[in-house]
Write a structure and sequence with these properties.
Elements: E1 6-9, H1 13-30, H2 32-35, H3 38-63, H4 72-88, H5 93-115, H6 121-139, E2 150-151, H7 160-187, H8 189-199, H9 201-206, H10 211-237, E3 239-240, H11 242-245, H12 249-261, H13 267-283, H14 288-304, H15 308-317, E4 327-330, E5 339-341, H16 342-351
Antiparallel strand pairs: 1-4, 2-3, 4-5
Helix pairs in contact: 3-7, 3-10, 3-12, 3-13, 4-5, 4-6, 4-10, 5-10, 7-8, 7-10, 8-10, 12-13, 12-15
Length: 358
């Protein structure tokens, strides 16, 4: 059997159709400020911040195997840098959003020197301690309001309708960019190397993968995304405080969204963010019962849907909107539509009497 009769296939019919559907949806969504209500735009900005932050946590933990409960450090840092650039440096706050994300990525480099000295549960607790150091540090800076926080005054000269429209467009652009960059990264060789590191660092390093450099790169990218979400959130909120910016609830919410949707899947944070937003909007008035409901839902999903709701749908019906798995498909036109995982093809090759010689 000639191995050249097989091609590596990563896309599916559903994913190719999704590309066109997504393009139409994005174009349609971009027109929302022209005909929609301002409350709709505010809700979308909130969902976008949840989704971006959850996706970056999923990239770090679900794909990189680094479980952190201190990503709120970069969320708050990005927000504070955006506010300081806007209030004190005269930078347009919308321009300061990516600058705040870049600052969060830069600060993640020295922070990683401390965090990467820990492993497993110690790494998770260590990141939480680092986030608390960030919170206490900004709480003692009187220029940004200290512990009570301060208001984003740089937007005072901009009309409310213009401010809300630009914030909405920034959120839409950030969501599209986050999905595209993470998807392209996971489809690349570096994404494959990241999965190998997650499964077994020793084996990955023995195959020549630069484990330390890859982990640092993913940590910095996740910090950039968290800072982007933080800067975007506080532009829409117009006020920031240490307790709101560096609250551990941000990471707790991200874990909830990723676990509900499906960890280690691009679609997981999207599904989880929509579910979390819906629960938060319609059930938050019930106080402690709302929190009990979130906990009960998380328990039910982890028991009966161990791979999340999207993971269950993917296993049950084969849904994969953002496929990253590499598959082997026959080049024969009659069989080109049939694809199978590489492991199954390898098994069929082994059954062939001359497979090893071929």
């Amino acid at each position: 059997m000639n191995p050249r009769t097989f091609d590596v296939v990563r896309g599916t019919d559903a994913s190719r159709s999704l590309l066109w559907v997504a393009a139409v949806l994005v174009i349609g969504a971009a027109t929302l400020p022209l005909w929609g209500e301002s409350s709709w735009m505010r809700e979308f900005v909130e969902i976008a911040c949840y989704f971006i932050f959850a996706m970056m946590w999923n990239l770090l933990a679900g794909y990189g195997g680094m479980v952190s409960i201190g990503q709120q450090a970069f969320f708050g840092f990005g927000g504070y840098v955006m506010l300081m650039l806007g209030n004190f440096a005269g930078v347009n706050p919308f321009v300061a959003i990516p600058l705040g994300a870049l600052a969060a990525a830069l600060i993640a480099v020295p922070v990683s020197f401390v965090a990467f000295r820990l492993a497993g549960g110690y790494f998770a607790i260590g990141t939480w301690v680092i986030a608390e150091v960030f919170r206490l540090s900004f709480a003692n800076v009187s220029a940004v309001g200290g512990g009570s926080g301060t208001t984003l005054t740089a937007l005072r000269g901009i009309e409310r309708a213009t401010r809300e429209s630009v914030t909405y467009w920034m959120a839409l652009a950030c969501v599209v960019a986050a999905i595209a960059l993470v998807y392209l990264f996971l489809r690349s060789k570096r994404g494959l190397a990241l999965l190998a590191i997650r499964d077994n660092e020793v084996a990955a390093e023995s195959q020549g993968i630069p484990v330390a450099r890859m982990k640092l790169a993913v940590y910095v990218v996740a910090a950039f995304g968290a800072g982007l979400a933080g800067a975007l959130y506080f532009v829409g909120n117009l006020r920031i405080s240490p307790d709101a910016a560096f609250s551990v609830n941000w990471t707790a919410f991200a874990i909830f969204m990723v676990v509900i949707g499906g960890i280690g899947r691009i679609e997981g944070p999207l599904v989880g963010a929509l579910i979390f937003w819906a629960l938060n909007k319609f059930l938050s008035d019930y106080g402690t019962w709302y929190l009990l409901g979130l906990g009960l839902l998380a328990i039910v999903v982890t028991i009966f849907f161990k791979q999340g709701l999207w993971g269950y749908a993917q296993q049950r019906w084969g849904w994969s909107l953002f496929p990253t798995q590499r598959r082997l498909a026959l080049r024969d036109p009659a069989a080109s539509k049939r694809s199978m995982p590489a492991a199954r093809v390898a098994e069929k090759l082994e059954l062939h009497p001359h497979a090893k010689h071929q």
